[in-house]
């Protein structure tokens, strides 16, 4: 009486197991798709059609903020070296234009500019066409400390006559100019950090902890303006903003912070002029 | 009468078997094309791979792997519209396939970045 049901239940279990195995085998066969990971390079076309230009002139930048870095010289040097290796355009080697002085020169009444009263030393006054009367108004700040100071200099990029003259001088290249604000920045507040802790058994664990910290660093805010050297008109412009913060005790040189921040946005700048390849991995299925 | 019935049944069975076999042949032909495509893609011959995977998709339009692989190849060639269409077809066939979905998400990330860059003034 007792053995019968036991025998029956074991047979049921065996049958159920067999069914389960059959099902799992079928599922494995059904889902057992082989796959291959493969590296791919996705080409991205440039934002600008630069086929009309053979040459590019990184003219110079209106810069402000920190005095620790000559942002005009450094930006011109960095962009030229990047474009030499990563663009098909020929990079023109020319003196870096002191655009702050040029803009201030242009802002003077027309007579003053012709007399060369505040002309920059590198001969830029020869092509410093006066600003049209409707763009004449406010005096430019001597020192550029923030974004507001910088904005007033942007009228320089609207002076098509001036940029056309520069274009003629360098045989109608694509002109890259703009503004660069590199300024010190500090912030205090709660920061989330992972802290290592060991329990009584010596086991390590990482606990997210919020701590109050004073941090200092820099903000980099460049605006790149692309000008057609044949007409002097702006064809494209783009603005970026990057910031970096360190512990208040950490002493990081301004120049290395500048390069760290520029490194982040150089690929975006290059993607305006030349095609880029984005590396990644995809899965091929069988 | 009985013989006629048996003959009818046998014929029906044969026709069904033949059609099942044909469907199986189609899938195995498509699978062979997909495998060949993978082999050449692994050697960097993407154009040839595209041809093979297009053949596979034509042979068996319900073969999600063929569309997935085609999408990857189009992406590699910079043909974003075709890549998107192929990914969408693959996902329509196998909406729960994690690998296809993962590929598609990665593709969308690049495609969104590209279109955003183009829309920037």
What does this structure look like?
- The complex is a heterodimer of chains A (286) and B (121).
- Chain A has 286 residues and is an alpha/beta fold.
- Chain A has two domains: 30 residues; 246 residues, no CATH class.
- Chain A is 33% helix and 33% strand.
- Chain A is flat and about 80 Å long.
- Chain A starts with a helix and ends with a strand.
- Chain B has 121 residues and is an all-alpha fold.
- In chain B, 87% of the residues lie in helices and 0% in strands.
- The longest helix of chain B is centred in the first third of the chain and has 41 residues.
- The radius of gyration of chain B is 20 Å and the shape is elongated.
- The termini of chain B are far apart.
- Chains A and B meet through β1, β6 and β8 of A and α1, α3 and α5 of B.
Structure described in brief:
The complex is a heterodimer of chains A (286) and B (121). By secondary structure, chain A is an alpha/beta fold.
The CATH homologous superfamily of chain B = Tetratricopeptide repeat domain
Computed CA radius of gyration of chain A, to the nearest angstrom? 31 Å
- Structural class given helices, strands, pairing of chain A? alpha/beta
End-to-end span of chain A in angstroms? Answer: 56 Å
CATH-level-2 architecture of chain B: Alpha Horseshoe
User: What is the β-strand count of chain A?
Assistant: 8
User: Helix amount of chain B, in percent?
Assistant: over 70%
Task: Describe the SSE topology.
The complex is a heterodimer of chains A (286) and B (121).
Chain A: H1 3-31, E1 35-44, E2 55-65, H2 71-86, E3 90-91, H3 99-107, H4 110-115, H5 147-151, H6 160-169, E4 174-198, E5 204-228, E6 234-239, E7 242-247, H7 254-273, E8 276-285
Chain B: H1 2-42, H2 46-59, H3 64-77, H4 80-93, H5 98-119
Helix pairs in contact in B: 1-2, 1-3, 2-3, 3-4, 4-5
Quick tags:
heterodimer; A: alpha/beta; two-stranded antiparallel sheet; flat; B: mainly alpha; Serine Threonine Protein Phosphatase 5, Tetratricopeptide repeat
């Amino acid at each position: 009486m007792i053995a019968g049901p036991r025998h029956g239940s074991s047979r049921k279990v065996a049958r159920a197991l067999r069914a389960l195995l059959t099902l799992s085998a079928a599922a494995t066969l059904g889902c057992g798709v082989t796959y291959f990971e493969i590296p791919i390079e996705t080409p991205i076309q440039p934002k600008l059609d630069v086929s009309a230009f053979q040459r590019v002139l990184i003219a110079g930048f209106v810069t402000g903020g920190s005095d620790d870095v000559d942002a005009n010289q450094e930006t011109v040097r960095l962009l030229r070296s990047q474009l030499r290796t990563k663009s098909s355009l020929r990079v023109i080697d020319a003196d870096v234009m002191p655009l702050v002085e040029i803009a201030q020169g242009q802002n003077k009444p027309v007579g003053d500019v012709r007399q060369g009263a505040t002309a920059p030393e590198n001969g830029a006054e020869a092509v410093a066409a006066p600003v049209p009367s409707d763009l004449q108004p406010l005096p430019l700040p001597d020192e550029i400390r923030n974004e507001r100071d910088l904005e007033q200099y942007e009228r320089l990029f609207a002076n098509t006559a001036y940029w056309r003259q520069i274009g003629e001088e360098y045989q109608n290249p694509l002109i890259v100019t703009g503004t660069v604000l590199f300024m010190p920045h500090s912030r205090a507040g709660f920061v989330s950090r992972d802290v290592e802790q060991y329990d009584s058994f010596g086991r390590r664990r990482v606990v997210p902890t919020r701590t109050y910290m004073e941090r200092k660093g820099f903000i980099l805010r460049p605006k790149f303006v692309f000008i057609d050297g044949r007409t002097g008109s702006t064809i494209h412009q783009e603005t970026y903003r990057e910031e970096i913060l360190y512990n208040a005790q950490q002493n990081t040189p301004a120049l290395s912070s500048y390069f760290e921040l520029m490194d982040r946005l150089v690929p975006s700048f290059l993607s305006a002029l030349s095609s880029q390849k984005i590396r990644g991995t995809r899965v091929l299925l069988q | 009468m009985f013989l006629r019935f048996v003959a009818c049944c046998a014929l029906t069975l044969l026709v069904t078997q033949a059609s099942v076999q044909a469907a199986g042949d189609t899938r195995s032909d498509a699978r062979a094309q997909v495998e060949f495509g993978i082999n050449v893609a692994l050697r960097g011959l993407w154009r040839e791979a595209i041809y093979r995977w297009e053949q596979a998709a034509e042979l068996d339009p319900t073969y999600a792997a063929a569309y997935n692989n085609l999408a990857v190849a189009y992406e590699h060639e910079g043909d974003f519209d075709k890549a998107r269409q192929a990914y969408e077809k693959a996902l329509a066939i196998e909406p729960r396939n994690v690998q296809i979905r993962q590929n598609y998400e990665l593709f969308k990330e690049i495609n969104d970045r590209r279109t955003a860059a183009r829309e920037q003034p």
